[in-house]
Amino acid sequence: MGFASRYSLVKSIMDIQLLYFPLQNIVFLLSCVTGSEAHRVISRRDDVMQLELKPLELLDKSSIVKHNLSKHGKELDESPFNNQV
């Protein structure tokens, strides 16, 4: 990870820490890895609801990719020798 990426990550975590005010009538959606610094920072708040999601099944991933590719007139090749999923 380069300097710019590390700086961006640190800046983002610092931005999360600055959310010290109550989030009334605001939905703030954060996606992060459990145990990461961002997760630890946001978990300290008592006004946060956490919802842990499990990874998508392969069929669900394939369906999402197919749907998005079809918008651009493209297809997903799932043949045994060229599986793009």
Descriptive account of the structure:
The protein is mainly alpha-helical. The chain contains 3 helices and no strands. Helix 1 runs parallel beside helix 2 (37-43). The protein has helices at 3-17, 37-43, 58-70. Helix content is 41%, strand content 0%. The mean pLDDT is 76. The chain has 2 domains: 3-43, no CATH class; 55-85, no CATH class.
Helix and strand layout, with pairings?
Elements: H1 3-17, H2 37-43, H3 58-70
Helix pairs in contact: 1-2
Fraction of residues in helix: 40-55%
Order of helices and strands: HHH
Structure summary, number of beta strands:
0
Q: What is the number of helical segments per DSSP (H or I, 4+ residues)?
A: 3
Amino- and carboxy-terminal Cα gap: 25 Å
Biggest β-sheet: count, sense, barrel? none
Uncertain segments:
none
Structural class: mainly alpha
Rg on CA atoms, Å = 19 Å
Total domain units: 2
In what range is the share of β-strand residues?
under 5%
Estimate the global geometry from the Cα principal axes: elongated
Mean pLDDT: 76
Task: Provide a brief overview of the structure.
The chain is mainly α and 85 residues long. The chain is built from three helices and no strands.
Sum up the structure in keywords.
single chain; 85 residues; mainly alpha; 0% strand
